[in-house]
Amino acid sequence: MRNSVKTTTPSSAKDYWRTSDQAYRDACYLCGVDDFNVDVAADDGNKKCAAYISEQADSLRIDWFLGDFANAWCNPPFSRKVEFLQKAYSERKRGLICMMLPYEPCTTWWRENIDGKATIVYVPDGRYNFLHPETGKQMSGVPFSAAFIVFTSLVSPTHYVQFKRGIGRDRGMSSHRHCSP
């Protein structure tokens, strides 16, 4: 019998953990962009891009690639990860999408929505810390590993690539708040 991981995070807060700058820089580096054009699951306090789609705007119901947007960043609400994966798959022909999700390849949700659909899964050498949704303070002891799932218009088997966290640290990003058009 598998031991389940215990968490002290209240259920109401699990959807709002923020992405660390290190994780975002690594994702940019791995996807070959200085910044992503739009953050599709954000709010004014946790956005990684100047352009973002808020919870109120409901990115599951609107196009992710408006105007000159060519790529998108997504750290989706934990409770809605499958819905965001399905939306990413439907949007993939219009641009590159990088999602940060729990690395759980043995689960049904993973096998049905990532294997054979995502182009690349970047698997880090350890766990990323997230930021507290209210204070922005880095929280350690994350009880799960995360990976970057990349969707593109390429049709191929899903490729798994391991990498060392911090790979994007030397990337010359002017600011994580300003995305390239």
A few lines on this structure:
With 181 residues, the chain is an alpha/beta fold.
What are the SSEs and their pairings?
Layout: H1 21-31, E1 38-42, E2 51-54, E3 71-74, H2 81-91, E4 96-102, H3 108-113, E5 120-124, E6 130-131, E7 138-139, E8 146-151, E9 159-163
Parallel strand pairs: 1-2, 1-3, 3-4, 5-9
Antiparallel strand pairs: 4-8, 5-8, 6-7
Task: Describe the protein in words.
This protein has helices at residues 21-31, 81-91, 108-113; strands at residues 38-42, 51-54, 71-74, 96-102, 120-124, 130-131, 138-139, 146-151, 159-163. Residues 1-7 and 173-181 have low confidence and may be disordered. 15% of the residues lie in helices and 22% in strands. The N and C termini lie far apart (49 Å). Strand 3, helix 2 (81-91) and strand 4 (96-102) form a beta-alpha-beta unit. It is globular and about 35 Å long.
What spatial order of strands do you see in the largest sheet? 2-1-3-4-8-5-9
The beta-strand count equals 9
Average of pLDDT:
81
The number of domains is 1
- Shape summary: globular
User: What kind of sheet is the major sheet?
Assistant: 7 strands, mixed
Quickly give the structural class. alpha/beta
Number of helices: 3
* Low-confidence runs: 1-7, 173-181
> What proportion strand?
15-25%
Look up the CATH topology. Answer: Rossmann fold
InterPro entries: Dam_MeTrfase
GO molecular function: DNA binding; site-specific DNA-methyltransferase (adenine-specific) activity
GO biological process, one term: DNA restriction-modification system
Organism: Idiomarina xiamenensis 10-D-4
